[in-house]
């Protein structure tokens, strides 16, 4: 079984400030990890994913996340927030197929 926990249900940041959305996972096998974003009145879109190899993953719009096995974390970061980043962000984990996200959790980011 696998699960994710997002530690901040809502995050408010000022324009230009750094963004950190925290995600911890639990998995009995090497995990595939995902971040999705849902902008207002739009569908989910994949922001980035970790499958194996390089632990620092760069995504769209300047976001990145680092897989830290020792901390069971996959926190999402951006150096400088923009008002257009205001959205819901979903962390997900899967232990099988990389294209299939397992349990979803959510952060709401307000800019």
List keywords for this structure.
single chain; 111 residues; mainly beta; five-stranded mixed β-sheet
Question: Helices and strands: which structural class?
Answer: mainly beta
State the helicity in percent bands: under 10%
DSSP strand tally:
11
For the sheet with most strands, the description reads: 5 strands, mixed
CATH superfamily: Immunoglobulins
Mean pLDDT across the residues is 87
How many structural domains? 1
Count the DSSP helices: 0
Looking at the overall shape, the CATH architecture is: Sandwich
Going across the major beta sheet, what is the strand order?
A: 2-11-10-5-6
Q: Write down the CATH topology.
A: Immunoglobulin-like
Radius of gyration, whole Å: 13 Å
Strand content: over 45%
CATH class: Mainly Beta
Distance between the termini: 35 Å
Q: Spans of 5+ residues with little confidence (pLDDT < 50)?
A: none
N-to-C series of helices and strands: EEEEEEEEEEE
Domain Ig-like: 2-105
Pfam family, one: V-set
Keywords: Adaptive immunity, Immunity, Immunoglobulin domain, Receptor, Signal, T cell receptor
Protein name: Ig-like domain-containing protein
